[in-house]
Amino acid sequence: MWRFQRNRINGKLFIPSVLLFGFSMARILTCILRIVWATMHDAASTALAAQIFVNAGILVVYIINLLFAQRILRALQPTIGWNKGLRIVFKVLYALLGCSLILIIVLIVYGSYTLSPSFHSAQMWVLRGTSLYLLIFTALPLFLVPLATLLPRNDSAETFGEGSMTTKAIIVLTSSCLCTLLAGFRMGTTWATPRPISDPAWYHSKAAFYCFNFLIEVLVLSLYTYATRPDKRFHVPNGSSKRKSYAIPERQGSESDAGTAESDTEKKDSDLSGAQA
Fold this sequence. Notes:
It contains 13 helices and no strands. It has helices at about 1-10, 15-40, 45-55, 60-75, 80, 85-110, 115-140, 140-150, 165-190, 205-225, 230-235, 240-245, 250-275.
């Protein structure tokens, strides 16, 4: 948040910093709820809230990965990246992600207060479908970034932020691989055959939970907060979506050119007056 406010004061509006701040706050709240649950085993509502936050928080990072991959595609392949149809597809993907989050929350909450076998059966298949969609959503940058870099370079290709496009691609691919591993683990455990509490599988252990959830999230958050400075590398000029270009507006340059032309005209007029005198 400090970086976001500092960049905002300097005229750089970088919304992903706010998203990462929200993700960090959500994880702090998640761990607080889990600590309370560990000390108060009969706090069913606390356990339910902790479970919801565990599933919902990481979606912010999924969105950031796809957003950065989209920026790379638009910069290297403007014809494809700024295509109106593709922009609609991305909006649909984000909308479906929001719907998936709502479904997960509703099913987890309602399923905790009902014993209906038919509902739990439907709940299981809906959760399996949402986990599959989240995996596909998370893996999209792994296809978009290579597509942008391997296709023949467009004559109107642009750049944005600091650093090379190769470094940006490596950062996005690294984060996407970690998130895909997490989403794949969750999908695998969701699609696995349910097991009795007396006979848990290896993925039910505490080590698996913390390694495939919080450890991966800490690595991704460290990558985007300390190691790579995304507020510098992935920043684009304000209003780029409306202009469909990442080029810096030349308004200041045009104003200075106009001022120079005006001063040249005044100078010519004074020289002409002097000559006539």
